[in-house]
Amino acid sequence: MDNPYESPLEQGSSPARSDSLSLGWAIFSGVVWSVGASLPITALLVTFFRFPIPFRGIVSGPSFIPLAMFALLMYGIFLGGFLPLAAAGGIAGGIARAISSTPARQRWILRILAVGASFALLLLLATLDWVIGPW
Fold first, then answer.
1. What is the distance between the alpha carbons of residues 42 and 72, in angstroms, rounded to a whole number?
2. Do 113 and 96 touch, CB atoms closer than 8 A?
3. Contact assessment for residue 59 and residue 53, using Cβ atoms and an 8 Å cutoff
């Protein structure tokens, strides 16, 4: 006799998403893309817009790319700036996995969202004095 409380779907159901990226891999990839993209994004920001350098102020121009790279490492390592970048990349990886069904699309969406989040956070850093206002 069959169990009346057991759903017929439970007997032969397959895994919901067998062809998808694993959640851990999506989050890890988002972190790597977000933190890794911060270096070229910083170079573009200092070249075409501006970037704050510790003990130097706001600078702009391609001649300040080495100083901007050093400043990014200082902000990232000593002040914990890589943590928000990593968190945004991890969230981007989770979103990319959730909104797409195929692994190829998930990878592309992941990259776009992680680099976009990194750009948004670095642009916020570059314009923080405008956002907060004068002290």
1. 7
2. yes
3. yes
Instruction: Report how far residue 63's alpha carbon sits from residue 15's, in angstroms, rounded to the nearest whole number.
Output: 54
- Alpha helices, DSSP H, located in 4-102: 8-11, 23-48, 65-73, 82-99
Lowest mean pLDDT among 50-54, 83-87, 127-131: 127-131
Specify the pLDDT at position 45: 96
Task: Give 59: exposed, middle or buried? Use CB within 10 Å, 0-12, 13-18, 19+.
Answer: middle
Tokens representing residue 110 in the block: 């992941």
pTM: 0.81
Closest C-alpha among 45, 128, 22, 49 to residue 84: 128
The answer to whether 67 and 57 have CB atoms below 8 angstroms apart is no
Written as six digits, the tokens of 99 are: 């909104």
Element (H, E) at 114: helix 103-126
**Phi, psi (deg, nearest 5) at residue 53:** -115, 130
88 neighbors 27 (Cβ within 8 angstroms): no
Rounded to whole angstroms, the Cα distance separating 1 from 52 reads: 74
